[in-house]
C-alpha cells in the first residue's frame, strides 16, 4: 500500500484537510501586504524645497489662502519642463518679478538656484506619513527607497536558505511557528524604527520570516493533499495571495500613516503563531526523519478528525514503513545541493525552474507606475488575478502544468515588450497591457507553486535543497528588480526590455520540463530519473 492509499484510508480530503488548508492560507493572506507594502509605506508624495527666503512661511495643509501660497511658491521655487515646481531646487533669493504675468519660464530657470538646504515640504493629501517624508528620501537620497526594498528581498533570500535547511532538520511545523513569531515581532519593531538603518534591519528580518512561512505552508498543504486535488489546493493558496492585495489596498486607504500600516499587517501574525501549535506535522517528513511512531499518531489523528477512527486504528508502523520505504531509505543518505545537478533529469528541472521564478519576481514588483490612484491600481492588481488564476487552474487541470506555465510566461513577456512601442500619452492602452501582463504572471506564479513541488522528489522537494535552491534564485530577481528600475535614467525603455525578455526566456525553458499532471509525487531521485527515461521513450515511439 502506497502513502497515497494510506491517505485515502484515513480521509484524503475530509474535515481535517479543509481546516488544515484554511488555517494555512490565513498567514498567506498578509504575505502580499509585506511583499508590496512599500507601494504605500514608501510612496513618494509631491514635494518641493522648504521656502526659507520668507520669514513667516505658513503654507501648510491647513492654510486657506491658496492664492498667497501660489504666489509664494512662484517667487521661491523654479519650475521644470512640465511647468511643475522643481522638487530639488529653489531660488537663492525671492524673485518678485515673477509675479508679473508676462514673466516667462526661461526667466525663472536662468536665475540662481540652490539645492534644498532646509528640507522639503510634502503634499500630505494622500499619505500623512511615509518613510520618504519621515527621513527625506528624495532628490539625492531617492535611491534609498529602492535600496530598502532590495534589502527586504535580500532577507527573503537569506530566509529561503536558512529556514530551508532548518525545516528539514526540525520539521515543517516547528519552523512555521517560529517564522510567524519572527514576522510578528520584527514587523512590529519596524513600525517603531527611529532611523532608516533600523528600519532596513527589521525589514530584512521580516523578509526572512516570510520565506519560512511561504515554504512551510506550501509543504504542509501539499503533503497532506491527495494527488487529484493538489491543483485545487494550489488555486486556493494562490487566491489567498490575491485577496491579500485587496486587503492591503483597503488597509492603506484607511491607515495613511506608514507606522500604523506597518503594525496593522504585522500584529495578526501573533494570532497565527498561537494557533500554529495545532498544525499536524507532515507524515512524509516524520518518516524520512525516522519518527515512525509520531507519524502513526499523526495519521490516526487525521483519521479521527475525518470521522474514520476505525480505519486509523487499523494502521500500524509496519504499514507506514512499507508505504514510505523509499523515503526512509533515501533519508539515510545525506542529500545536498549537489543532488540538484547530479543526474540528468533533476539537473534539467533545476536549470529551468531558476529562470521561471526569476522572471516572476523580476517583473511583479515593477508594474506600479500607472499614473492613476495608487489604491485603485492595487485593487486592479488583485482583481486581474481572479480570472487569470481561474483560467490557469482549468488549464493546469485539463491541459497540463507545462503548457500553462510556458504560455503564461511568454504572453506576459510579449505584453511588457509591447509597451515599449506604445506612446506615453496612450496611458489607457499602456495600463491595459501592463495589467494583462500582471494577470499572466499571476497565473504563472500560481502554476509554479504547484509545478515545482511536483517536479522535485520528496527527499529534496521543499525546504532542504530543491525549493530552497529555486527560491534562493527567485529572490535574487526580487533584489535586482528595484535596481533595474534605476536603469531608466540612462535608457527609458531598458527596464521594459529586461523585464519583457526574462519571462519569454523562462517560457521557452519551461518547454523542456516534464509534465506532472495526474502523476504521483516522486519520492526519490531515482523516481525522477525513471520518469525522465519513460518520457524520452514515449517521445521516441511517437
What tags apply to this protein structure?
single chain; 542 residues; mainly alpha; two-stranded antiparallel ribbon; two-stranded antiparallel sheet; 4 strands
Give a brief rundown of this model:
The chain has helices at 3-10, 15-29, 31-35, 38-41, 66-76, 105-109, 131-135, 143-170, 172-191, 196-223, 230-254, 258-264, 268-275, 283-288, 292-305, 309-314, 317-323, 325-331, 339-342, 344-363, 374-398, 401-418, 427-455, 466-484, 494-510, 525-541; strands spanning 47-49, 89-91, 113-115, 120-122. By secondary structure, the protein is mainly alpha-helical.
How are the SSEs placed, and which strands pair?
Elements: H1 3-10, H2 15-29, H3 31-35, H4 38-41, E1 47-49, H5 66-76, E2 89-91, H6 105-109, E3 113-115, E4 120-122, H7 131-135, H8 143-170, H9 172-191, H10 196-223, H11 230-254, H12 258-264, H13 268-275, H14 283-288, H15 292-305, H16 309-314, H17 317-323, H18 325-331, H19 339-342, H20 344-363, H21 374-398, H22 401-418, H23 427-455, H24 466-484, H25 494-510, H26 525-541
Provide structural commentary:
The protein is mainly α and 542 residues long. The protein contains 26 helices and 4 strands. The strands form 2 sheets. It has a two-stranded antiparallel ribbon. A two-stranded antiparallel sheet has the order 2-3.
Give the overall silhouette.
elongated
Model regions low in confidence, pLDDT < 50 over at least 5 residues: 105-109
> How confident is the prediction overall: mean pLDDT?
77
Q: Which class do the helix and strand fractions yield?
A: mainly alpha
Using DSSP, what is the number of strands? 4
End-to-end distance: 33 Å
User: What composes the largest sheet?
Assistant: 2 strands, antiparallel
Question: Radius of gyration, rounded?
Answer: 27 Å
Strand content: under 5%
What is the element string, with H for helices and E for strands?
A: HHHHEHEHEEHHHHHHHHHHHHHHHHHHHH
Q: What fraction, in percent, of the residue positions are helical? A: 55-70%
Tally of alpha and pi helices: 26
Strand order of the largest sheet: 1-4
